[in-house]
Design brief:
The chain is mainly α. It folds into 2 domains: 1-46, no CATH class; 54-148. Helix content is 63%, strand content 0%. The chain is built from 5 helices and no strands.
Length: 150
């Protein structure tokens, strides 16, 4: 940071309550570009008000659709078993496909959410490929269910 830029951070924080991004300490009246609590260097930056999240949301919807389908079908079986005392006889394939689908798509959904910020920073082509993979996984899930459950 050049000297003119280093004066901007204390000027910005002179009358503002802003938490340190690392430890949460209030940086009001900061004198230097380092947090006095945790010692991390502080930088004044420009950011997007609404970052582009279309790809993240599209992948999230694709994975949630598959996990939701499996979860609802498993929930239906449990409700039938509890309310109507239906047995699970002959439902091995149904249960295996839906439980497996829920575990795979649910796991992928958790990974997607944990990597959300990294996904936002990927190239447009890479994001499009990942979104297509999310939807392909859900379509494969639906296809397997349709073929193997009678």
């Amino acid at each position: 940071m050049n000297p003119a830029e280093s004066d901007l951070l204390p000027a910005f924080l002179a009358e503002r309550d802003v938490p340190c991004p690392s430890c949460g300490y209030n940086l009001r009246d900061l004198k230097e570009a380092r947090c006095p609590e945790c010692g991390e260097a502080i930088d004044l930056r420009v950011g997007l008000v609404e970052p582009r999240q279309a790809a993240g949301i599209a992948g999230l919807i694709g994975l949630a659709a598959g996990a939701g389908m499996n979860g609802l079908l498993l929930g239906y079986v449990v409700i039938r078993a509890v309310l109507f005392h239906d047995s699970f006889g002959g439902m091995g394939t149904f249960l295996a496909l839906n439980l497996g689908g829920l575990l795979v798509e649910g796991g992928a959904l958790l990974v997607w959410l944990r990597r959300w910020r990294r996904i936002r920073r990927l190239s447009r082509a890479t994001k499009a490929l990942l979104v297509a993979a999310c939807w392909a996984l859900t379509l494969l899930n639906l296809f397997l269910f349709s073929v193997f459950v009678k």
